[in-house]
Amino acid sequence: MNAKLVNSLAQIIQTLTDAERKELDTKLSTLAQNSKITDRSTRFQQWDRLVSDADAAALKAEFAQEDIIFAEAILPEYSSNLQQEDYA
Question: Is residue 60 a contact partner of residue 52, using CB atoms and an 8 Å limit?
Fold first, then answer.
């Protein structure tokens, strides 16, 4: 932003009442959140354009297998922890 614009905005903000400043802050916060949502949506659209369905399916299968391996490795420990909690 150029310096003149920033100075003008600062002068305007100084003239606002507390309620007006709070309202401005709320609106700016909402605008920032909407911008983040738009950025996230754009990234998903880019992903969809760049990654083929076959590549996406391969990634999904790879992570699914890793999830199964992890779950099978942790299941005995989890089960014994549940039993300990039942007897506590």
Answer: no
Which residue's structure tokens are 């942790």? 74
Please tell me the distance from the alpha carbon of residue 79 to that of residue 86, in angstroms, as a whole number: 11
Positive or negative, the CA dihedral 9, 14, 17, 19 is positive
Within the chain, residue ranges assigned H as helices are 3-15, 18-50, 53-87
pLDDT for the residue numbered 64:
92
**What is the rounded CA–CA span in Å between residue 13 and residue 21?**
7
Indicate the residue type of 73: A
Q: Is 2 helix (H, G, I), strand (E, B) or coil?
A: coil
Between the alpha carbon of residue 37 and those of residues 24, 43, 46, 49, 53, the distances in Å are 20, 10, 14, 19, 24
Q: Model's pTM, two decimal places? A: 0.36
Tokens of 83: 């039993």
The two structure tokens encoding residue 80:
């014994």
